[in-house]
Amino acid sequence: MTDMDRYLHAATRDNTRRSYRAAIEHFEVSWGGFLPATSDSVARYLVAQAGELSINTLKLRLSALAQWHNSQGFADPTKAPVVRQVFKGIRALHPAQEKQAEPLQLRHLEQAVAHLEREAQQALADQDSPGLLRARRDSALILLGFWRGFRSDELCRLQVEHVQAIAGTGISLYLPRSKSDRDNFGKTYQTPALQRLCPVQAYIEWLKVAALVRGPVFRGIDRWGNLSEAGLHANSVIPLLRQALERAGIAAEHYTSHSLRRGFATWAHQSGWDLKSLMSYVGWKDMKSALRYVEASPFLGMARLTEKSLGE
Asked: Angle, nearest 10°, between helix axes 81-93 and 55-72?
């Protein structure tokens, strides 16, 4: 691989590369299309997949085809008027409500963390090292994910050497790259210590029992209590979160890793944060992204209006 190839490769996120690769394979192998493609073949591909794939998936397939043609020096067929019109028609005839993760409510966060603390204390009494490690790890991951509004991949890429935590004060977390940092400048996130449900104390307690001094913050733990050298995979955050919630007696089938991010955004919105402050704290660049995560409650505004009226 040449230096140019290496830099071009680094410019695209691994998840995006995998998605684009799968999209191109689907177009060529599964559907039987030819590359370079014509605008007519792309339009027919959209028509064939319209009843099977979601609008977002079709958009990703078009992006992958556009990227392949641009990188190979061919004209981009996805920009042709016929493709745009077909896609517009599909969106009109196949409307679909966007599925969103259930936001983790503060009371459920409190319930889960309290249960994890009981698990940790029981593990200490039983000298159960694996149980203690899992309880401390899960508590730190859930609290950091919630109060910092992190995505699962951001949690899994945290490195011990990039985190500074001071008990009773706060925590500073540096990420060299993230989805919201398109130019890979790196960004430092900070969160204060709290009296309750404190992410700083949870992080310190996890590092203490895990004896970590460098490398990934959150790792796999085997049945004997051995820590993996590698960090958790982003896909493992969903089962980890659901299992922790279920052990605390919370129905968790509708929760995903985005539930932590949406939960914080909902809490902040209902606590009176203005949208600009929320966007700055979480790292959203545009209002549309922020509004997708905020749990809009039509009854919240009605309740405030009623309270105001009764006060008068």
From this structure: 170
Q: Could you report the per-residue pLDDT of 124-165, keeping only the tens digit for each?
A: 999 999 999 999 999 999 999 999 999 999 999 999 999 999
What pLDDT, in 10s, does the model give residues 243-263? 999 999 999 888 988 899 999
Whether 33 contacts 65, CB under 8 Å: no
Distance from C-alpha of 193 to C-alpha of 147, rounded to nearest angstrom = 10
Q: What global pTM score does this model have? A: 0.70
Per residue in 91-116, pLDDT (tens digit) is 888 876 556 678 999 999 999 999 99
Residues 188-200 as b/e (b if ≥16 CB within 10 A, e otherwise) read ebebebeeebbbb
CB atoms inside a 10 Å sphere around CB 80 = 16
Contact (CB, 8 A) for 77 and 64: no
Q: Please provide the CATH number assigned to the domain covering 110-273.
A: 1.10.443.10
CA distances from 137 to 27, 124, 204, 211, 220 (A): 42, 14, 10, 12, 9
Tell me the C-alpha distance between 65 and 263, whole Å.
Answer: 35
CATH number corresponding to 3-93: 1.10.150.130
Q: Domain map of the chain by residue range?
A: 3-93, 110-273
